[in-house]
Model the fold of this input.
Amino acid sequence: MEKRENMYPEYDDFYEPSEGEMFFDEMKEKFREILCEDVNSEINRLTKENTELRQKVKEYNDKNLDLSHRENDLQYKMDNYKREVENDFYNKTMEEVFEKLLEDSEVWYTDRVPHEKPKCNLCNEERKLVAVYPDGETVTKKCKCSRPTYIYEPVISLNKEIKFHKAYKPRYSDKKESLFY
Done:
């Protein structure tokens, strides 16, 4: 039992705690012990609950990550299958359709045809510039009029074979253009 401090230390020998004070001190000590046990048990319970909840959150996040990976894989596979089906369609179906319609038919297209420029008055008959330096050295260079001018002209052709080609479009668009060549 604790000894109480008295206001007058010289009279310590004359002061003894009463039975009520001793009972009150015992009850105070028991209450303190019970309170400490209760607080410690609550802290232990909350610590255990916290670790369980952290484990559940970790499992949830792992499952969520796994689901997002699966979803991305499925989207990737779906895009690949879509591309394969489109390629098959363009390679097989359109060739079969147009093969019967356009076989041995006339097709007009443009072709890039070179044309000679008129000869300038600076170059010789071979369209070369000739320069003679004062030291007697002779240098020849092709004239600019020797380079042809390209002009697009319509040309007719008999078709023996048609190939269907899907023009390039960005992946985010489903619209396709078709070109014949």
Q: What stands out?
A: Residues 30 and 97 are 98 Å apart (CA to CA).
